[in-house]
Amino acid sequence: MSRSGALAVVLMIAAVVALLAGSQADAVVTCGQVASNLRPCIPYVTGKVSALPPPCCNGVRSLNTAAQTTADRRAACSCIRSQASGISGLQPGRLSGLPGSCGVHLPFPVSTSTDCSRSVTI
User: Fold this and answer.
1) pTM of the model
2) Residues 86-106: tens digit of each pLDDT
């Protein structure tokens, strides 16, 4: 990722964290955690690699374990949605298929169009 691309991701994460601070006050999962856990998935969801990297699934499982409350899941969903919208070359099918491919069941769809305030519960 280029230096300007990395800066854009950091700024986007900061903006999402600021937005979530008010609406997800009781959430424990942070956008920083979401970004860190899912960063290994970027080459896969952009089609740069064909095989799902094991660190990606480790991150998906870690995030699922950390997000145990509705507030946590909504915060994670919002972060994923926001960050995914800024990923150049994102393949939506690969993004939505990540949980299942990693053997994780989520009670909400992973998509840039998910309404995290309504679709996400525990």
Assistant:
1) 0.73
2) 899 999 999 999 999 999 988
- Distance of alpha carbon 61 from alpha carbon 77, whole angstroms: 14
Amino acid at 42: I
The secondary structure of 46-98 as a DSSP string is TTS-SSPPHHHHHHHHHHHHH--SHHHHHHHHHHHHHHHHT-TT--HHHHHHH
AA identity, residue 10: V
Superfamily of domain 3-119: Plant lipid-transfer and hydrophobic proteins (1.10.110.10)
Is the confidence at residue 40, as pLDDT, over 80? yes
Report how far residue 89's alpha carbon sits from residue 112's, in angstroms, rounded to the nearest whole number: 13
